[in-house]
Amino acid sequence: MRRASLGGRVGDSAAILEDHATLATGLLTLYQLTGDASWLDAATGLLDVALDHFADPDRDGRWFDSADDAEQLMVRPADPLDGATPSGASTIAEALQLAAHLVPADRAERYAAAADATLASATPILARLSRSGGHWLAVAEAAVRGPIQIAVACDPQQLGIAFRGARIGARRSGCGGRPGQLLGAAGRP
């Protein structure tokens, strides 16, 4: 992956942690909306690359902004503070947390453990620099409340009507869907 492109020309700079994390989060969202496993596979591939190349092997839960195989710098950056946009570290925590709820159980533990360690590493930010931890707080809230699922029980013919006013697209599905999927349950008022 590359960091940027301009006018259809791909730049030379390699993607950083923030790029991997935000793209993985977007791909996980696409998976939840479509059910297409290729989005989940692509997202977890990015997360595996991030775990292998951006995670600090000496300090659990700490992340570098540049990969270990990227251009060698005098000091490898590792800025966990959120600014106008979320930090790479807080965004990777979100992506790992979300993936842990979406992948099969045999793969979930790696992502859940990394998300927990990453969130735990942000405690000093939340305690002393809360203005620089806005996205960290959203990730912490999600860790406390768990994933949100919405189940809609109504006549399948009425399902589209129920969501038109809210401007939310819904797919009809049988019972027993996956996490994050809206379900229409026939025969329920």
Word description of this protein:
The model is unreliable at 161-189 (pLDDT under 50). This protein is mainly alpha-helical and 189 residues long. It has 2 domains: 5-145, Glycosyltransferase, CATH 1.50.10.20; 152-185, no CATH class. The chain has helices at residues 17-34, 37-53, 88-102, 105-121, 123-128, 134-145, 156-164; strands at 5-6, 9-10, 152-153, 184-185.
Gist of the model:
The protein is mainly α and 189 residues long. It is built from seven helices and four strands, in the order ββααααααβαβ.
Break the fold down into its secondary structure elements and pairings.
Elements: E1 5-6, E2 9-10, H1 17-34, H2 37-53, H3 88-102, H4 105-121, H5 123-128, H6 134-145, E3 152-153, H7 156-164, E4 184-185
Parallel strand pairs: 3-4
Antiparallel strand pairs: 1-2
Key features?
disordered C terminus; 2 domains; 50% helix; 189 residues; Glycosyltransferase; two-stranded antiparallel ribbon; globular
